[in-house]
Amino acid sequence: MEMTFKKKSDLHVLRKVWHAGGVLCLVFIWLFFEFPTSVFVFAVCWILFVTGDVVRLKNSKYNKILNGWLKPILRTNEVNKFAGTTYLLSSVIFISLLFSHQIVTLSLLFLAFADPIASFVGIKWGRHKIFGHKSYEGFFAAFIICALLTYEFLTYYQVTSSRIVVSIIAGLCGALAELIPLGKMDDNFTMPILSSICLYFLFIFFNIQL
User: What SS3 class is residue 129?
Assistant: First the structure.
């Protein structure tokens, strides 16, 4: 019998839980280990996942077996392509080498919470489409989550100057990073990078020292 997998337009709650939990594990590694140990751990994970992905895509029998195991969290578009985890780890290594500890942390929190919540809200209640499967409802959900995360983040670091304004702008940046596609690149790759770039310039403009 042919296996059927979830599409991007399906609610797929288990995948969203898996996504949030996986990204939070990366946040824990980033916070628990000192740089460059954390990057080394990311690199080891990347090598393991990419090797597994390449072998899976080269060997149809192995691919079929692995797809059967991972069916609860796989999408149709990942069956014969690289999985989202490979793109995620690639982006994490990229931003961890270029941006500050705090920016990487906040960008990953955006990805952990805003991305799955925006998708959930968009699929469940999204009636007004922007383009493709993206909706205004999902965009607004991502904005709220990113703004709240930024506000709490700045509060933790005792930043009081322009905290609300920065949180609102960061919320828009995170929501736009989740919304805007860059060609056919996976959003697990693009969202952390776009969020990090935006936060970097935002913190410079408002002279935020963390």
Answer: strand
